[in-house]
Specification:
The complex is a heterodimer.
Chain A lengths: L1 H13 L3 H13 L4 H21 L6 H19 L11 E5 L8 H12 L3 E4 L6 H10 L4 E5 L3 H5 L4 H10 L7 E5 L1 H5 L3 H4 L4 E2 L3 H12 L9
Parallel strand pairs in A: 1-2, 1-3, 3-4, 4-5
Helix pairs in contact in A: 1-2, 1-3, 3-4, 4-5, 5-11, 6-8
Chain B lengths: L3 H9 L9 E2 L5 H6 L3 H4 L3 H15 L4 E2 L6 H5 L5 E2 L7 E2 L7 H6 L13 H14 L5 E6 L4 H6 L1 H10 L2 H24 L4 E5 L10 H19 L4 E4 L9 H8 L3 E3 L6 H8 L4 E6 L9 H15 L5 E5 L8 H14 L3
Parallel strand pairs in B: 1-10, 2-5, 5-6, 6-7, 7-8, 8-9, 9-10
Antiparallel strand pairs in B: 3-4
Helix pairs in contact in B: 4-7, 10-11, 14-15
Classes of the chains: A alpha/beta, B alpha/beta.
Chain lengths: 225, 342
């Protein structure tokens, strides 16, 4: 039964058909599936399934990524409120675009995917200074700073990721706070994340959740001093 | 020596005079050429025209640009703030559409040519026409109806409206943007531009599903193009791939030039086109920043090996990042002139 539901749900996500997606969720609840089952066995795997399709060279485009992430985020928020016990978040992620970058679409897709993956996301918005990234990471005891760039010069600019790295080094926080980058320039040059001194990069929002989960394993918790 | 116009005309007739045409899109680099800041450079059409002519002369490629930066279109439609960078293209810093009411209020100027925000481009075009008209193709950048809203309301809000919003509001905005597209292109045409780069990432299946392309993008592409005709139109999706839609675009619109994505398979594009149009192989100009001389040569060779068989092929770049070292531009062009030669 759940298998059938997953197939129908995935098809609706790929067709960017919001009405059908919500109908499937309502039907699933009516059939007695728990909100926990729906989130962890339907919604989150669907986000990952999209990633798997990319790997299999199926066409997955920007509209589908955007749709999947927004729907996953919206449904997760709605259904988590109905959980018997509220699940523990995996951690806080600070996200924003660097100085001079006013393109927020990638950031929004990533944010939606991270919500579905049970991260708490603190979205600093557009045109964020390196100091603000670091200060907010300290304030929220976050282990991850995610920097999304649309333009080459904002990805590589001295006030972007490079400065975040410099500030983390100066504050001796590199073992606690890791940097992940993403966005168009990184897709066109897969070594660019090394040039901007990030710890890693993710090709899209779906992958970001997986990559950040792995990255967290290499960081020191804020509780450990 | 042949001119760019002669090379392009010959290619359109299935011939190569000496080498294939080469479109090298240097925009922000003009500021470096003129020894001034990017902000000062784009403040005066004379600077832009002078730099365009100098850079074409210096590197020997075939194209001239009347484009300053893409956000100029938003300025014509009311954007009051452009954010300048010292090492990259200017960005729109004020979105003129913040809510649906702003869409209802959006006014398209009756005549783009006389609009103050077009004045410097007009000045630039006049100089280019006087100095190089008839010798080198003057390119204009015109954003499609489906893509222009991203500059007016931000791409997040635009995709949200496309996917989840009321269709009547979406269509009202598209109608206005298509009207602007035609008027904008006409202003360029009247001022002497020869080539019109029809910029439409939403005309790529990297942006929308094939169903959305057929049901939404294609009708608006048709509406845009039917207002202006296909003469001089170049189908361009930015860095997004177009191989999935080329056949449909040729069959439905008859567009004669396709400016591929660096991510498109050139040989596959040629096969799809099957002699019905020209194809530009486009280099990955992000990797060009750090490639060595031999890597650049190998990549250019790879592109020509894929594109040259059967002809109807030329070479292009995307909007070259400011950070590309000048010597890498030269290495790229040396290789292009070598492999694109008869």
């Amino acid at each position: 039964m759940l298998k059938k539901l997953i197939t129908k749900y995935n098809e609706a996500i790929f067709d960017t058909d919001k009405k059908t997606v919500f109908q499937i969720i309502d039907d699933a609840l009516a059939q007695g599936f728990s909100p926990e089952e729906i989130v962890f066995e339907l919604i989150v795997p669907a986000v990952d399934n999209m990633m798997k399709s990319v790997g299999e060279k199926m066409e997955v485009n920007l509209a589908q990524h955007f749709f999947a992430s927004q729907i996953a985020s919206e449904l997760t928020e709605k259904l988590v409120a109905k959980f018997i016990s509220i699940p523990e978040k995996k951690g806080n992620v600070i996200i924003g675009t660097p100085i001079g970058d006013f393109h927020g679409l990638g950031k929004r897709i990533v944010t939606g995917c991270l919500y579905a993956h049970m991260f708490n996301v603190i979205d600093l918005g557009l045109n964020v200074s390196a100091e603000e990234f670091v200060n907010q990471a300290i304030l929220h005891k976050s282990n991850i700073i995610a920097i999304s760039s649309m333009m080459y010069h904002t990805a590589t600019g001295e006030n972007g990721c490079l400065k975040v790295r410099k500030l983390l080094k100066e504050a001796k926080l590199e073992h606690k706070i890791k940097i992940i980058v993403g966005g168009a320039p990184y897709r066109f040059d897969k070594k660019l994340y090394e040039i901007v001194q990030a710890d890693t990069w993710a090709e899209n929002g779906n992958l970001a959740g997986i990559v950040i989960t792995e990255l967290l394993k290499t960081t020191q918790s804020w509780q450990q001093e | 020596m042949a001119t760019g116009i002669e090379r392009l005309s010959a290619l359109a007739n299935g011939n190569i005079i000496d080498r294939v045409p080469v479109f090298c899109n240097l925009l922000d680099q003009g500021a470096k050429e003129m020894g001034m800041s990017i902000e000062k450079y784009f403040s005066n059409g004379e600077y832009v025209a002078e730099a365009q002519l100098k850079m074409r002369e210096k590197y020997g490629y075939d194209s001239l640009w009347s484009l300053f930066y893409a956000g100029k279109e938003a300025e014509i439609l009311g954007c009051k703030k452009i954010i300048y960078s010292k090492d990259g293209p200017p960005n729109v810093g004020h979105l003129i559409i913040k809510n649906y009411d702003d869409i209802h209020k959006l006014q398209i100027p009756k005549d783009v040519s006389s609009h103050p925000a077009f004045e410097q481009q007009l000045k630039c075009l006049k100089i280019l026409k006087k100095e190089a008209g008839g010798k080198y193709p003057i390119c204009a950048y015109t954003t499609s109806a489906m893509t222009l809203p991203a500059m007016l309301m931000g791409i997040e809000k635009w995709i949200e409206l496309l996917l989840f919003g009321p269709t009547e509001v979406r269509d009202e905005l598209l109608e206005k943007c298509s009207d602007f597209f035609a008027k904008h292109l006409l202003a360029y045409k009247n001022a002497g531009a020869d080539i019109f780069v029809y910029a439409n990432p939403f005309g790529s299946t990297d942006f929308v599903t094939i169903k959305q392309f057929n049901e939404l993008s294609l009708p608006w592409i048709k509406k845009d193009i039917q207002q202006v005709g296909i003469d001089g139109i170049v189908y361009y999706c930015g860095s997004s791939r177009m191989n999935n839609v080329i056949d449909t675009v040729i069959n439905e619109l008859g567009i004669k030039t396709f400016y591929l994505s660096p991510m498109d398979d050139i040989a596959e594009a040629k096969k799809i086109i099957a002699g019905r149009a020209l194809a530009a192989g486009v280099i990955n100009d992000i990797e060009l920043i750090r490639w060595s001389k031999s890597e650049i040569r190998a990549e250019v060779k790879r592109m020509f090996d894929a594109g040259m068989p059967g002809g109807n092929f030329f070479f292009g770049t995307l909007v070259m990042p400011y950070a590309i070292p000048e010597e890498n531009i030269k290495y790229m062009l040396d290789a292009v002139y070598e492999f694109g030669h008869l």
